[in-house]
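Sharing a chain and its predicted structure for anyone who wants a worked example. Both blocks are below, sequence first, tokens second.
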Amino acid sequence: MSRTAARSAARTAARRARWAAALAVAGLALAGCGAGHDAQTSEMAPAISGVGANAGSIALRDMEVDFGRSGSYRAGGAAPLRVWIANKGETALVLESVTSPQAETVTLATELTIEEIVEGAVALAEEPADGESESPSEDPSAFGESPSEDASPTEEVEVTEEVGVLLGERDFTLDLAPVSYQRLTRETGTFLLLEGLTEDLDMRSRVEVVFAFSNGESVSVMLPMGMPEAVESRSFFGEEH
């Protein structure tokens, strides 16, 4: 594929991704702290910190509002949820709707990373190494010629950068195969997103979320704000000053 074709394809993909959904992500804190594999147990948050509920053969576990960067979200913004959902029965079911009185809508969001070409990026042309000089015969001024525009010390290059794109569906269903489970979190790439929050959320908040399924079951759950993935180390014996 030629450079021009590659640039055109990248721009087209970026435009499609941006227009796939009009998500209110300005107030969404998608970045968070994470503990490494070598972190001590005392520095890790509990494996399951959310709440659970049952709806017939459906089990909902580890449900909470994602802590994000600060454990708070502003009214009018958006907040991601963490949900573990399992179908324990032998019949396929469908999650038909998810709603919340504390948000205008609940979206099934997918977070993608694409490479986008940075237009107009330039890079400095290589300069002669120390001790080296250009031959006088190569200097246009030696022949009474003025430097042309092509002799610019910069040249245009093709630079790309990774761009986070959030796609989403506001009218969605989710198939639940028999004896299976799905984890909807930012880490898995697909998650539920509260859009148009009607109030500020912080560590003291509880968010009501209603799940409705194809078997006629529905359940209303009060979700707490989650804990950060890593917490500060604690000393039970004090520290010397």
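Comments welcome. Residues 12-46, 231-241 have pLDDT under 50 and may be disordered.
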